[in-house]
From TrEMBL:
Pfam families: HATPase_c, HisKA. Residues 254-474 form the Histidine kinase domain. Its EC number is 2.7.13.3. One of its GO terms (cellular component) is plasma membrane. The keyword Hydrolase does not apply. PROSITE patterns: HIS_KIN. The keyword Nucleus does not apply. The chain crosses the membrane at residues 176-198. This is histidine kinase. CDD domains: HATPase, HisKA. The lineage of its organism: Bacteria, Bacillati, Bacillota, Clostridia, Lachnospirales. Its main location: membrane.
Amino acid sequence: MRDRLRKVAKSMHFRVLIILLVTGLVPINLIKSGILKNYEHQTVEQRAYLIRSQCTLMGADFIADGYLDGNQSDTLESRMKQVADLYQGRVMIIDSDYKIIRDTYGLDEGKTVVARELIDCLSGKNGKYYTQTSDFIEVITPIENDATKEIRGAFLISAPTADIIEGERSLSRTVLLLQIVLTFAIVAVSFYASSILVRPFRKVTDYLNSGTDFLAEDLSMPDYTETEMLAKAYNQMRHHLKEQEESRQQFVSNVSHELKTPMTSMKVLSDSLIQQAQVGEVPNEMYEDFMIDISHEIDRENKIITDLLELVKMDRKSTIIHIEDTNINDLINLILKRLRPIAEKQQIDISLESYKPIIAQVDRTKLTLAISNLIENGIKYNKEKGWVHVSLNVDNTYFYIKVEDSGIGIPKEDQDHIFERFYRVDKSHSREIGGTGLGLAITRSAVLVHHGAIRVYSRLGEGTTFTVRIPLKYTKTGKEQAAEASGT
């Protein structure tokens, strides 16, 4: 049950629903609170204004009749009682000495009232003041002589606010009813809207769970900008996977073909020997020639398998690389020393041009394999009495190896494919000289393992130039550090 609740809480549908509910319900409650407070404030303010207006009118008559000087007036008494009855409250008249000279309740006459609000009112600092307690509103208004602007006293009126509170409660019930209706409407709209919002993502889930061939067609989700971006990323991944699948199928096909070809040749040669033996004695010369051919085919099969294993090892994400400080000049000289016998046999001149001594952090074995393949290709696919020129250079960040030859060159349409596995520009010529179609793929993998780059420049019949750029200092990538930390 707990796992199910956790799953629901993590769902996008639930979170969008909560956001919509909060977005809708919080403002409703704030609006309700604002309406009630504004009603209360406006009603109390209006009542205080009416009381002050009536007191101002009475004040002029009180001064004119000398009521504050001790003169009695039944008319003024009646008016005070009318005001008190109108607001169901209490009216008190206070003179300039803060003494209550008239109280409609008849309780506090003759007493002295000292309050900050009354002092401000009689001193002329604040001529209009009201305050609200829990159930009453109190209004203080000065009694002012219009002619001399002298403040002779003040009215203090206390009026209950029961009717205001009851009106507020009635309004609250009405607003609450509206709030309930709006809440149900918001909940319904939120459920519907959240379902609509997450529908494209459910579409993706249903599509992925449908068992459809993911590589067959692109995914289209034009509903939102985000879903368009998601579909675009998915389609890019699909195309990449499709290319990988096609490459894998082509690779398997090529491997099968390349491994099968030597075995077919050996089968044909061995069958021929058996047939000859059945007919009569096999001549020693024929037996020797056939065995030499079988030996060559075995060597070829072994080279293909060796190159495949080397390529597979380099393709692994957690390729083990042994980095050490290496003198690149000495390394290239050693490679050339090993390949010179092959070059001399084919009358190919090999030369090295080095501008500066170079010390770099590389894997000697992998870099040797990469450069050896380039130079060996320059020898194998060269013209008679041709040349292979190797040059070394360096700057503050990288060192550069350039391998140029005077060979047969590479057609422009083939140059984008020469680093693919088993790709051959001239298949018949490649097989004649023992090529497996894996050398340049291995070279490219070895260069990439060093975080380097390789480029080719060639013209048919005019030779080929390979340029390799590799950092002087080897820096592990984040993936390599993570793999190393996990022990993979």
